[in-house]
Amino acid sequence: MSLPAKKYAQLSWTETLGMLAKLIPIPVALLWSVATTAYASYNRERSVKRVAGDSALRYLTTHLSVPQLQAAFGTTMGTYKKWTKANQLPVTIDELGLDGRLMWIGPKRLERVVLWIHGGAFSLPPPDFAISFWRYVQLELEKQNIEVGIALLNYSLAPEASFPTPLKQAGLALDFLMAAGVKPQNLQLAGDSAGGNLILQVLSQMLHPREGVPEIRLPAPLRGAYIISPWTNLSADSKSHTTNEGLDYLCQATLKDWGVHILPAVPDADRPFIEAVRAPAGWFKGADALVERVLITAGGAELLEDDIVAFAEAFKKHHARAELVVQKDGLHEDMYVDFMVKEKKVGSLTPLTVEWLAAGFQETSSA
């Protein structure tokens, strides 16, 4: 198990050579994986290129260490600038302080906003295809005459930052948007994996202010929070980590290794902030006064499934308008992979995302 590098993407020459050596067999590995799994029952709704995409992600996340993945994927800033250039869209960035930023996808709009907090185990940047997904959502909302600004939170990543730095940066993002005139009832949060974790950290901070972290105060409840495949157990020890092994593109050993890069920096007293599924009963009591609507999604074939379901059931006890949707045979953040392979037939979570966000903003219009 590799120890965290001192700097982001820092590799020794042996690690660099090892990374290159691991990338060479990818074509053969993909051919074998597609040939042996493309027609399995759990892939019956997926095209061959989608199966190939899943296999590519599985190979990379299984064979490369966190620093190697960082070197391969680059930074959030680099990914965002390359994506905007490729899509002929403006680079629009607002500085938040503490090295945090908001990066706007498409036009900067403040009447209605989705604040997207990306995943990546608090260690990796958002992939370009995830940005493409949110641009697609934005354009689909425009077809319903709902113009939305989508802001990506650029928060600091491990090993150069640890808890509670991303939480502080998320609080600064909310402060910035409120100061810019965004009304809470016109703001919906969206977060995938570690980003979903960070949304839960924000709610936890509002309910149980942590010393050393500025309080997060809003003048009214947020319109919604969309929590996608949230990473609520960093120890990777629930049953679905075993039963869904080989189905998801993540593997148990990978998730355990990623957790090792994060958990040591979190004091035991702060574990409910970072591992929501292990939070005490009643931890999220009062969440219904902070956010009006909550949607939690999981894949029925992802390793995090059991933890997500357990967390959602506990959360729903404290929020009458929280709902859980488990996508049949879905993988971790399943809809993003459709956009990675440019799939024409998208899975069920993509239209659900558009419909759910639209419903929230339409409630605002009719209020």
Automatic annotation (TrEMBL):
Keywords noted in UniProt: Hydrolase
One of the record's GO molecular function terms: hydrolase activity
Record-linked Gene3D superfamilies: alpha/beta hydrolase
Domain of life: Eukaryota
UniProt entry tagged with the keyword Hydrolase: yes
Domain spans labelled Alpha/beta hydrolase fold-3: 114-333
A UniProt-annotated Pfam family: Abhydrolase_3
Keyword check for Transmembrane helix: no
Coiled-coil spans in chain: none
Protein name: Alpha/Beta hydrolase protein
Organism from which the protein derives: Mycena albidolilacea
